[in-house]
Design brief:
This protein is of the alpha/beta class. The protein has ten helices and nine strands.
Length: 289
Amino acid sequence: MLREEIAASMDDPLFVGIGEIGLDYFVPSLDDARQQFFYDEQLKLAREFDLPVICHVRKSQDKVLKGLRVHDIHCGIAHAFNGSFQQAEAFIAQGMRLGFGGNVTFECALQIRRLATELPLDAIVLETDAPDIAPSWRYKERNTPDQVPRIAAVLAQLRGLNEHALSIGTTANAHAALPRLPLASSQSISSTHCVCAGRSVRSGAHALAASRSEEEDVRAILLGFALGVWWLQQQARLPDRAVWMACGAGFVIAVISGVISADAHRMLRGRGVHAGVLVCCDACGSALA
């Protein structure tokens, strides 16, 4: 049934990946053999259809990572990551991004804050997990996607960045983690959809995209240019004499990513959601882009 659902969704521009899948060893009553079986089968499908995965990793980081390695999965997100630095580096080496949300706003969440602060920015995405993992100012209340801008502000402060720089980085990371996301972002849509537990799920958190404007296109292309230069300098550590080469390459990246960014930014602003956010489905907790 799940294979049929995935096959039927491949031409849907709103279908961006498979999730939320994974393992959970925090809840003692769960059948280990049963959840491992389903996780393996879901990974096989992700590999078969060349799709990214959004993984549940609560108290199960090592086994989830083992599954990714066995099935040769190199794209996706480890949702609500709370492992060690060694485990984080292993997920990053596997090609995964790490999701952080409301839990980073709690001062007592020392390990999560250390991870979110010290890990490379290009490994991090923001997510809501609505209605769960509410930020500190909504403790024991229902979480909603509109809280993400404040969460992003907290993370930016922890990392010593301005919110705009954080937005650039996490937006790029979201697109890298979910390669089909640009296709979804280019549409005027009311929802984004994934496959979970053998059924298609749509999130009511997504509102209609804002109307197109040339001013937004220009800002997005400039944003893409800045992103391209920043990425090349970070990855290649270019010497001074190669700065202009980096700028030129950055402009090429801007042409490619600027159009995508324009639509993505319009869509996110239309939703009232911070750029680079991974929105989660209220219905089942599945990660949606």
